[in-house]
Amino acid sequence: MREVWVLGAASNRFGKMAETAREAATRVSWEAIHQAGIDPKAIGHTFVANCFGVADHQAHLGPLINQGLGIPEVPSVTLESACSSSSAALHEAFVHVAGGFADAALVVGVERLSTIDTLQATSYFAIAADYPFETKNGATFPGLYATLASAYRAAFRTTPEMFGAIAVKNHANAARNPHAHFQKEITMETYLASPVIASPLRLYDCCPFSDGAAAVVVAAKESVRSPVTEPLVVRASARAGAVTDMHDRTDLLGLPSTRRAAELAFRQAHLTPREIDFAEVHDCFTIAEALALEDLGFYPKGTAAQASLDGATARDGTLPVNPSGGLKAKGHPIGATGAAQVVEIFEQVNGLARGREVPRTGTALAHNVGATGGSCSVHIFGRR
Amino acid sequence: MREVWVLGAASNRFGKMAETAREAATRVSWEAIHQAGIDPKAIGHTFVANCFGVADHQAHLGPLINQGLGIPEVPSVTLESACSSSSAALHEAFVHVAGGFADAALVVGVERLSTIDTLQATSYFAIAADYPFETKNGATFPGLYATLASAYRAAFRTTPEMFGAIAVKNHANAARNPHAHFQKEITMETYLASPVIASPLRLYDCCPFSDGAAAVVVAAKESVRSPVTEPLVVRASARAGAVTDMHDRTDLLGLPSTRRAAELAFRQAHLTPREIDFAEVHDCFTIAEALALEDLGFYPKGTAAQASLDGATARDGTLPVNPSGGLKAKGHPIGATGAAQVVEIFEQVNGLARGREVPRTGTALAHNVGATGGSCSVHIFGRR
Q1: From the list A54, A78, A375, which residue is nearest B63 (CB)?
Q2: Which among A351, A383, B49, B273 is least buried, having the fewest CB atoms inside 10 angstroms?
Q3: Do the chains contact at B63 and A136, CB–CB below 8 Å?
């Protein structure tokens, strides 16, 4: 297996895009390729991540993006794994490059749903859950994650402030991230006063609907002469699945797909959770960040929410988590989310995360979940 | 690179499915795995091909299919490359297995659009073309392929009967295929009397909207002890892209993505077009079959339509083409089409194509196009 490097990673500002998905995806791809310092013709395969092309009237995005990059002959495919689509795309790019099927590959995630109404967008998102058993009966994602939050609150001694601390911390980070949807801090009082969306989840427990695009360029170490950026070495690229339906699970205190993907990733990287310097984790709801930190092995079960309140996950804490602001505040453009996590890690490593730097950037982890855990990807990145 | 084998391949009857996409995909997956004689737990990755999950209210199909197969922990992803989605999925499966990332992989393509109205389905299909430049201005696929047909008719001396011969032949084959949507023969008179859809294309030049599901199981040769079927050896798995917009092309007498994918595939397989015994090619419209046969190198430019009229592509011809009935008459459930081509090749090789056998089954080619050629996949299969 060849060593795979991330040479470039770029994102637009999440929020509401005036550009179409195709335009935004092409532009961030250009930026990532330019940053990587490679010729677009070096790209052997383009992996697009996009879930709801129907909302933007455009499927089959790869050839259009490649055409915009001047490489129409390059093969491409669009990948969907719900909210973990672009980490799934990154995994395919990793496999192609590590396996010697391409020397370099482009991963670009994009979503634009702001052109349709919120109810329609909610109904689109909802098809990533189990339609006949969950969505059709009214269980949309806030309800499903509220079920996980209720189980957690029932099992452990938690206070609303513990989850509020996750929201406050992620907003504080996003306020320093020019790519973020919400570039504003919130206070605990704001959090506690926000309306209940699906009990116990309040408005500020939930990530927003965002448009956005993010691109990542990977290449085989052996194909790179002298990198113009500080590359991320892909030490692990692991994915796992799990039972989608909540009612068929034996345990609601974590996501089995995260546990399995993490186990595979740490084994692949020959690392332990203690050796990770910072992490971008999937915080579509604040409960998801707490569960992730436990399932990934950073905290014993039932303790991550308290650790957040203690400040351990802040940028100056023992393990900075979501210095980008996370899905919660940076935003969650479904198909772009996994790639955007890599953008944050790349910017931290390359000194581009001004104002939100984490102290140590030797080894970082990205964790991206599809729906309520039907899929999960864990990537671990190191330095040369 | 490890040698990759197709051990099983199964399809339902194309047409109108009472089952949901998820149910049909799970069932054909079971059938393909059972046929392959392997334990579902041997599957290392599931690649789903599906374009319009929104029509069936279900995205993120992989975890649901895997759950039905008793392997919820296995990673999965859904791939979209317009009408070439499941050949793109097969390519990813090939890369994973050939590269040593999985010993076996499942490819399952599925589409169900019969639950929505035809106009809505047309508008969904149309997003696989270039929306702002083509679809938005009224150019749906019959119109786009009619443009290709017009260019062909203007450049070469063709008669309507040459294209009619393709439709008559494919219907004759589909009449002998229990998986086919249209299990009925048509006459040249019926073809010539059918209404014009987009001049010069008549009704019987066009493939139907079909529901359907097809699954393929691949495994590394070295992981198979004693195959219970006659495996297809994957001699080549190649993909290419090309400019999507028709107005940006310099040549309308063929598809550049087919030419490039074919060149790569024949090089990979160390074979020439003369060594192919039969082929499944992408005949979404009759003109597409003629162009494919020329772009793939089977016929000089401008001669394939005449060859069809001469009977050269019939089951007893020099090169049998689309013994399954093709997209034209077997049907075209977008996400399932590429996998269904492999089902036909597998059934021919394993003596399961009763009543529609081709004389020689040593080497076969499958050709699958996305939209009007923005993407193309070519696979070549041999025998042990």
Answers
A1: A375
A2: A351
A3: no
Q: Enumerate the H helices of chain B as residue ranges.
A: 21-36, 61-68, 85-98, 118-126, 141-155, 160-174, 188-193, 256-269, 286-295, 304-309, 337-349
Q: Residue A37 is part of which domain span?
A: 4-116+209-223
Beta bridge partners of B216: B9, B107
Rounded to an integer, what distance in angstroms lies between the CA atom of residue A54 and that of residue A58?
Answer: 6
Both tokens assigned to A255: 């996501």
Both tokens of residue A318?
């023992």
Contacts of A116 in chain B (CB under 8 A): none
CA B336 to chain A, closest CA, distance in angstroms equals 15
What total of structural domains would you count in chain B? 1
Asked if the Cβ–Cβ distance from A101 to B82 is below 8 Å, we say no
Amino acid identity at B262: A
Per the annotation, the verdict on A367 as an active-site residue is no
**pLDDT tens across the length of chain B (384 residues):** 999 999 999 999 999 999 999 999 999 999 999 999 999 999 999 999 999 999 989 999 999 999 999 999 999 999 999 999 999 999 999 999 999 999 999 999 999 999 999 888 888 988 999 999 998 898 999 999 999 999 999 999 899 999 999 999 999 999 999 999 999 999 999 999 999 999 999 999 999 999 999 999 999 999 999 999 999 999 999 999 999 999 999 999 999 999 999 999 999 999 999 999 999 999 999 999 999 999 999 999 999 999 999 999 999 999 999 999 999 999 999 999 999 999 999 999 999 999 999 999 999 999 999 999 999 999 999 999
Instruction: Report if residue B23 sits inside a domain.
Output: yes
Q: Is A140 helix (H, G, I), strand (E, B) or coil?
A: coil
* Cross-chain residue pair B77–A375, CB shorter than 8 Å: yes
CA neighbours within 13 Å on the CB side: how many for B18?
0
Residue B293 included in any domain:
no
Note whether B337 and B86 are within 8 A (CB): yes
- Report the DSSP pairing between strands A212-220 and A104-111: antiparallel
The CATH number of whichever domain residue B45 belongs to comes to: 3.40.47.10
Here the contacts of A122-127 (C-beta below 8 Å, separation 24 or greater) are A124/A51, A124/A52, A124/A54, A124/A55, A124/B54, A125/A334, A127/B53, A127/B54, A127/B57, A127/B58, A127/B59, A127/B60
Instruction: Assess if residue A60 is contained within a domain.
Output: yes
**A289 and A368 Cβ atoms separated by less than 8 Å:** no
Query: What is the dihedral sign for C-alpha B138, B143, B144, B148?
Result: negative
Asked whether residue A100 is assigned to any structural domain, the reply reads: yes
Q: Are strands B212-220 and B104-111 parallel, antiparallel or unpaired?
A: antiparallel
Which of B1, B62, B241 is opposite residue A66, by nearest beta carbon? B241
- Token pair of A225, please? 């002469």
Q: Which residues of B are catalytic?
A: 83, 332
